[in-house]
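Progress report, Aim 2. The chain analyzed during this reporting quarter is listed below.
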Amino acid sequence: MNELNLKLKTLIKLDLFFIIAGLFEVLCFVILTHNLYIMIIGLITVIPAYLAMKESNLKWNYFVGIIALVKYNPIGLALILFLLGDLNMNFAESIMYLSIGLILLLAISSFILGIILIVKTAKYFRLQNK
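Predicted structure tokens for the chain:
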């Protein structure tokens, strides 16, 4: 039972990462593009991760992990960075490159942690069924 609680705490910490990452996406993309509709990209990550924080709704973790993999696969990431690099922004170039670098760091960590989230959720349910 103690191992089950440790795995649950790990899943909740991973969900917190995806909530913070989604809010950071909302902040960055809205500030960089001045378009509120792009806020949907971050909210697709935040809402399921928030729902998955309850033990009864842990199956939402599969959706959060799959969305992270779909959103930040190498082709999707190249498209996002190409679009952000092509925008006419009123910021200085160094701030633009810094924000694109932070988004790239967030994307790589979200991709890796998305895989870890799916694996840990599967292990949690396998352990829970024993």
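Residues 2-129 form one domain. The mean pLDDT is 84. These observations will guide the mutagenesis work planned for the next reporting period.
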